[in-house]
Amino acid sequence: MTKRLEIGARRRKGVAPIRLGINIDHVATLRNARGERHPDPLRAARLAVEAGADNITAHLREDRRHIKDEDIARLTAAKLAPLNLEMAVTEEMLAIALKVKPHATCLVPERREEITTEGGLDVASQIETLAPYIAKLRAAGIQVSLFIDPEPEQIDASAKVKTDAIELHTGTYCRAAASGDRRASERELKRLIDGARQAAALGLEVHAGHGLDYDNVGPVASIPEIVELNIGHHLVGEAIFVGLAASVARMRAAMDAARESLRHSDTEASLGT
Ligand code: PXP
Asked: Which residues contact 249 (CB under 8 A, 6 or more apart)?
């Protein structure tokens, strides 16, 4: 093998696969609109895993507006796929996580009046509170991720509080992409690329999510340091038109295609083509 080909092969091997975490919160939102049992988030989770999702993400909000404690208990018992429990940094949620022992938790800021998680967690201003909180989760064998904006200060602070991973908030990028403002979209994408690099260099695993859809997912899935995307609203919304299995399978394919083109571009770069 020529030297260039060897480097290419090494780099291709170095592109980690990308996981899809399906966020099933809005299946619960629909169920709760009627206050009865249908549609069942557990059934949605099972279908999503069969269709190509790797993880199940569920946000147990303090006001229980969608996912409820019973959903978390049923998801845990069903052991369909690793459970990523999104939660606020409160004593109540810490006690629940330590009891339920999900595979991972994603710590998010939470305001009761918000429609969805609007911004990232301000890690930099809460280092003293977060470090012991994270240590308790990790001591119980639970992986911890922090949902943050792609800001250098927040990424540095995330390494300081010894989290396992960060999840970069893609909401601003997704809104810029939808606005048709190419410059803004490129600027926001660059913030994600730089943030992912910075975090990986600090030894953090990098995830991303919020507002992702079929049109905007490609460039994010092409960031090599990002190894997991958590996606909910678009997939559940699309399920109304095409069914959940088809909506998840299409997202899986879009993510895999982006990853595959990354491998090809690595090969081409190493061959100097
Ligand atoms: N990741 C986190 C931390 C979130 O709070 C959310 C929204 O609940 C998502 C991912 C998924 O976002 P969306 O529903 O827009 O795909």
From this structure: 51, 52
| Ligand 1 proximity of 232 Cβ (cutoff 6 Å) | yes
- pLDDT computed for residue 175 by the predictor: 97
The mean pLDDT value for 160-166 works out to 98
Give the count of beta carbons closer than 10 Å to the beta carbon of residue 230.
25
What's the pLDDT tens digit per position in 197-220? 999 999 999 999 999 999 999 999
- Distance CA(200)–CA(187), nearest Å, equals 20
Per-residue pLDDT band at 6 (split at 50, 70, 90): very low
CATH of 18-265, one of 3.40.50.300, 3.90.226.10, 3.30.530.20, 3.20.20.70: 3.20.20.70
pLDDT at 169: 98
Give the start-to-end residue ranges of the domains of the chain: 18-265
Quote the mean pLDDT of the chain.
92
Is residue 84 in contact with ligand 1, taking CB distance under 6 Å?
Answer: no
CA 108 to ligand 1: nearest atom: 3
Alpha helices (H) in the chain, listed in sequence order: 3-14, 25-34, 41-50, 69-78, 91-100, 127-139, 152-160, 171-179, 182-201, 217-221, 233-242, 244-271
Whether 251 lines ligand 1, by a CB cut-off of 6 Å, is no
Mutating to test ligand 1, I would choose from 86, 212, 230 the residue with most ligand atoms within 8 A of its C-beta, which is 230
